[in-house]
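Subject line: Sequence and fold of a protein, written as structure tokens
Enclosed: The protein record, placed directly beneath this head.
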Amino acid sequence: MTIGLAMPPQIRVFAAFFIYSFCMGSIYPRLPAIQQAMGVGEGALGLSLVGAALGTLLSLTFAGPYLERIGYRRVLLSALPLLAALYAVAVWAPSPLMLFILLVPVGMTIGCIELIINLEADRVEHALGFRIMNRAHAFWSFGFFGAGMVGALVAQAGLSPQLHLALMVPAVSVATIVVLGRFQSAKHRVTAALDNGPRFARPSLAILVLVCVTFSAVIMEGAGIDWSAIYMRDVFLADPFWAGVAVALGAGTQAITRFFADSFVDRWSPTMVARVLLGILGVGTVLVFVSDYQWLAYLGLGLMGIGTSAIFPLAMSAAAQRTDRPAAVNVAALAQISFVGFLLGPPLLGYVAEHFGIRWAFGIGLPLVLVSFVAASALGSRPVKVVVAEPAIPRG
């Protein structure tokens, strides 16, 4: 296909992460308006958002062999515009139940994209011989930052979520064609593995430990995305723009930290870097939990973005580089739990927010930070070197 820009493979990976997250992140600054239009509390809104988590779990569990059969290129180029269209339809939901139903196919599409781009980043990283995973996830955060700022501006301008998300469909479609039109999936790694792994990507004990490492980061990252705009509106009576900025702020500090994280990991170690970040995450969470000042709450959200920045990418690299099973099986097993935790945990925090106050949607994460801090040794005491192992697609 001749349509699209020619660019190095790592730049194309970064672009895929950016477009995906810019599309995915557009709905979150609009959640206050969506909640107000439906006239429901945080608990009902949170339950409706579980639909995306359910769809993601189904997709990450069963889609692997079909993605391989159809082809990564074909799926990625169609899934990104489809994701924008599904979001545009979902925001018309008149009730939490209908929003839940409409978000299930959204989650299924998210799962396909998530698996493809993370495996592509790992394969390109291996082919180049240097780390790109954290920078790839940095561009995911840059995309969320951009979506948050755009959402804040259009919310302040009075544009409805329906029109906003409808305009995203042609924008994402054009960006996909222009930037990813020449996308070709990288070659599989060479492996001694004789099979493609089990149909269901069950987590091994080692993967479960990595889940413990990531859980506080994915839960608190999701809490910031799902609830920071509503937190600012309810606690500080922030107008739509400043409520939307709260979503963008955490993504912005997260993006900058992720962009430079690889050099720190190579110099120190995954475990040391992770524990420093988890300490920062804990401080930021405390500030958001107790602050009576809006600027201090923004500082806390920014620190939370820094603290969550590299934990998930480090765990994904550790999972992909394990030699006990094909890399894609370990990647899918970690993604199934961690990424669904990112989508499922924060929406369920809506019930916590509704019954105990919106601050507790953040405060409840403090024990999780402690668990992650203890489990972080699973990432390794030395910088992880690239190894040869093929990330075969998980059978489900």
User: Anything to note?
Assistant: The radius of gyration is 19 Å.
